[in-house]
Design brief:
54 residues; mainly alpha; 0% strand
């Protein structure tokens, strides 16, 4: 029974994390995840960092 409780708690924690990470995508009209690419980040471009593919 202890194992089942632990698994249920882990699943609930992961589900909560997914919902909190997706709040902007789920609840804002036209919302989307921010880009993680270097060329889309002005601070990284300012520091002269580039993409490994370029």
């Amino acid at each position: 029974m202890q194992t089942l409780t632990t698994i249920a708690f882990a699943v609930a924690l992961v589900a909560l994390a997914v919902v909190l990470l997706g709040v902007k995508v789920l609840f804002v009209k036209g919302g989307k995840f921010p880009s993680g690419h270097v060329h889309d980040n002005p601070e990284l471009r300012r520091r002269g960092m580039g993409c490994h593919r370029d």
